[in-house]
Design brief:
Layout lengths: L1 H29 L5 E8 L10 E6 L11 H13 L4 E5 L19 H8 L8 E4 L2 H5 L2 H10 L3 E2 L3 E7 L2 E7 L10 H4 L9 E4 L15 E4 L29 E5 L2 E5 L17 E8 L5
Helix pairs in contact: 2-3, 3-5
């Protein structure tokens, strides 16, 4: 009997070890490189009936320099975004990895100029716009802003830009990151008239808590969709983020306020993903009744 129990225990231990090894390989080698395109179709009365549908491509948390977000990989991401033929492209912060203690395990710091050089190839008729994330706030916000704007990517810090599609005007509004303690919706939406619709984007979805009813849609990143075992995210609450569990990933509609939170591309701290595939977001915003 004792011999039988020992055999069962040994078999169970071997099975557990094999499963752990398989899961480790998958979470390091497979899922971080298994990039999907996540499509959304947002129908909202905040997009006027005479406005044409707007195609938006968005990506967040590139974390270039992390083991699974090398420059060659970002080059392929850029090609995939361009292939979507979006009207406008939004980059929602955390472009690189921090130096020193903030560096992801196994990663390497990549200068802002090298990241911007790769993103320069993004193409959209209405432009490419960016906001900064917490990694830029902690380390090199000025350098990243200068690098992006040098290649034609406008960085929005609590400000908006007026765009036009098929003769109809709308605004893109970008918010400063939550970690800067300066996200300001009033400033970002200042001067926007009542009739013109707004698409807003920010790095941290916590900023959505203070958003008024004006924007037709908000897009954010930061959470990585939980990155590693999303259902355990409550055990790893970021004290900076006011609502990480609530706005972890996906599409949210709160009394007509629309939010999309993307899982991003790269990784932070540990170069692992499990149950949170990296993604490019493709969203079409349209008024009710318009195909």
């Amino acid at each position: 009997m004792a011999l039988g129990i020992r055999k069962l225990l040994k078999r169970a231990m071997l099975t557990a070890a094999f499963s752990a090894a398989t899961l480790g390989i998958y979470s390091y080698e497979v899922e971080p490189n298994w990039v999907k395109t996540q499509n959304y179709d947002i129908t909202t009365p905040k997009w006027p009936a005479d406005m044409p549908p707007l195609r938006v491509a968005a990506v967040s948390d590139l974390h270039v320099g992390s083991p699974n977000a090398t420059l060659p990989k970002i080059e392929k991401i850029v090609e995939r975004i361009n292939a979507l033929n979006p009207d406008v492209i939004l980059l929602a912060g955390d472009f690189g990895t921090m130096k020193g203690e903030g560096l992801v395990l196994g990663g390497a710091y990549v200068p802002p100029e090298d990241i911007a050089k790769m993103l320069k190839n993004l193409k959209a008729p209405l432009g490419v716009y960016a906001v900064l994330g917490n990694h830029e706030t902690y380390n090199g916000a000025k350098e990243m802003t200068e690098a992006l704007e040098k290649v034609g990517i406008r960085v929005l810090d609590n400000e908006s830009v007026l765009l036009e599609k098929d003769g109809r005007k709308f605004f893109i509004a970008g918010l400063e990151d939550e970690t800067s303690q300066r996200p300001d919706w009033n400033k970002a939406l200042k001067g926007i008239d009542e009739k013109s619709p707004v698409i807003a984007f920010m790095h941290d979805p916590s900023t959505f808590v203070d958003m008024n009813d004006k924007p037709a849609l908000a897009i954010a990143g930061h959470t990585h969709g939980g990155q590693f075992i999303p259902f355990l995210v409550e055990y790893f609450r970021d004290p900076v983020t006011r609502a990480p569990g609530k706005y972890l990933y996906g599409h949210f509609n709160e009394n007509g306020r629309e939010l999309i939170v993307t899982s991003g591309i790269g990784t932070c701290h540990l170069p692992l993903r499990l149950g949170a595939r990296p993604e490019i977001v493709s969203v079409t915003v349209r008024p009710p009744g318009k195909p």
